[in-house]
Amino acid sequence: MLKIAVASEGSIVTGHFGHCENFNIYESEGQKITKSSSVPNPGHRPGFLPNYLNDLNVNVIISGGMGGGAIDIFNEKGIEVVTGATGDAAQAAANYLNGSLKSTGSVCHEHQHHGDC
After folding, report:
1. How far apart are CA 50 and CA 34, in angstroms?
2. Is residue 35 in a domain?
3. Residues 47, 24, 28, 35, Cα dihedral to 10°
4. What is the DSSP letter of 88?
5. pLDDT digit of tens for each residue in the chain (117 aa)?
6. Does residue 113 lie in a domain region?
7. Hey, is 104 helix, strand or coil?
8. How many angstroms separate the CA atoms of 112 and 104, rounded?
9. Domain boundaries, position 87
């Protein structure tokens, strides 16, 4: 089983991971999503969210953009980071499972949301 978290605003992939409204969580067997749920963002503070999602046993995190510090923590925990995603969260998870969603490596360098964040 694979567990995918999509940083979202409702059902849409968010542009900035840390300030998302919720995480849509999708569990899959093979390329099929077998279960979905949503958890509210418990709050943005440095280093907290990667550990929070690790505690939920997430294997993959999908977002529009994400700060380098969060990416580093996810990498340390063996959680795959996919950035540059847009649109419907469930579709992004499905696209990841079928291999059509590729990370753009979109890293937020400014916490004031300059550029694409």
Report:
1. 23
2. yes
3. 130
4. B
5. 999 999 999 999 999 899 999 999 999 999 999 999 999 999 988 889 999 999 999 999 999 999 999 999 999 999 999 999 999 999 999 999 999 998 887 777 654 443 333
6. no
7. coil
8. 20
9. 2-108
